[in-house]
Design goal:
The chain is an all-alpha fold and 152 residues long. 70% of the residues lie in helices and 0% in strands. α2 packs antiparallel against α4 and α4 packs antiparallel against α5. The radius of gyration is 26 Å and the shape is flat.
Length: 152
């Protein structure tokens, strides 16, 4: 028995096992197709957007749930709003209030992240109009945040 590739008549000099390995490697690591959309891009994009939404909601729920659980277990109050993001980042916000504010911030930023992520997805898919609409929505969200900060 030889350890080399099996010679076949007229087809390929690659052994059947090696052909199967090559096929599975190409399936796992498809060759880069620069510029042209891959058939699985839609499914990957939808999965990525779903993961962003799911991760944002789960992180927000975890932070808010932790603040609520600690409050109920130890009888500590979660003080009402009034704190700014600057106070939160500088550590001037009390413990449970900061935990709750981080949860609300995660919940608010989740759709913003989804819109920001959808822009390059639409652009890559050749849907220029949708990408421009997404960019407009993102600019309006940024403008509203800046104007809200200027007022309060």
């Amino acid at each position: 028995m030889s350890d080399g590739p099996v010679q076949t008549t007229g087809e390929s000099s690659v052994a059947p096992v090696e052909r199967a390995t090559l096929a599975s490697n190409e399936a796992a690591f498809p060759p880069a197709n620069l510029g042209a959309p891959h058939p699985d891009d839609d499914a990957r994009s939808e999965l990525l957007l779903a993961l962003v939404l799911r991760g944002g909601v789960l992180s927000a729920a975890s932070l808010l749930g932790a603040a609520l659980a600690i409050s109920l277990l130890f009888g500590l109050p979660i003080h009402g709003g009034g704190g700014s993001l600057q106070d939160l980042w500088q550590g001037h916000t009390p413990g449970l209030q900061s935990l709750a504010q981080l949860g609300i911030l995660a919940l608010a930023l989740t759709p913003v992240a989804r819109v920001a992520l959808s822009i390059p997805i639409f652009a890559r898919a050749g849907e220029r109009k949708q990408a421009l609409i997404g960019l407009g929505v993102l600019l309006l969200l940024a403008l509203s945040m800046l104007l809200g900060k200027a007022e309060g």
